[in-house]
Design brief:
Blueprint lengths: L10 E7 L3 H10 L7 E7 L16 E4 L2 E2 L3 E10 L2 E11 L2 H4 L9 E8 L3 H10 L6 E5 L2 E8 H4 L1 E8 L8 H10 L2
Parallel strand pairs: 1-6, 7-10
Antiparallel strand pairs: 1-7, 2-5, 3-4, 3-8, 5-6, 8-9, 9-10
Length: 184
């Protein structure tokens, strides 16, 4: 990766925030015609620690504004429209202000971030640093390493960068298959 725009080559997700995960999921299903959203309540990455030089680590964790979060809890609903993943996040507790600040109460969902896949998160992190930026939040959730860039001043939203462990595998593949099957 040479240019900052190299981070934006593999679009994968639209991310929204809400104050009511069930109402937002129902909106996608009934008004936009998606298949049923997969909901996860009280998902937590808090309390984990990022890997060190001595221990590469594979456990889940999140770092917010440079500090490992002791508590970080969200509700999430996921669905695909073909290859595009749609994620809805409801901030629940802990270090989730990154999401909470964008919520518009009573509105089904508000655009929060767009996400792109990279092959090498460490390489993406080095490019972010060389560009004079830093991750507002980064971590690991299962097979996904992720980081959020705060580009709200420039673009009006965050940009999430993700790397999937295991080349060629997508943690969203089952959601894409369900979306595609509904079109048959």
């Amino acid at each position: 990766m040479r240019a900052f725009s190299d981070l934006f080559r593999d679009f994968i997700q639209l991310g929204y925030v809400t104050d009511d995960i069930d109402a937002a999921a129902s909106y996608l299903e009934s008004s936009l015609g998606t298949v049923e959203c997969v909901r996860h309540y009280k998902s937590s990455l808090g309390g984990g620690r990022p890997p060190s030089a001595d221990e590469p680590g594979t456990s889940d964790f999140v770092v917010v504004d440079g500090v490992p979060a002791d508590e970080w809890v969200i509700d999430v609903a996921l669905v695909n429209a073909g290859p595009t993943n749609i994620e809805i996040i409801r901030p629940v507790g802990g270090a989730v202000a990154l999401y909470r600040r964008a919520v518009r109460p009573g509105v089904p969902a508000t655009l929060h971030h767009v996400a792109f896949r990279v092959a090498d998160f460490d390489e993406a992190s080095a490019l972010v640093t060389r560009s004079g930026k830093s991750w507002a939040q980064y971590g690991r959730s299962g097979p996904i390493r992720f980081g959020y860039l705060d580009l709200t001043a420039e673009l009006g939203h965050f940009v999430e960068i993700m790397e999937y462990a295991g080349e060629g595998t997508s943690p969203f593949a089952h959601l894409e298959a369900a979306s595609n099957a509904s079109r048959s």
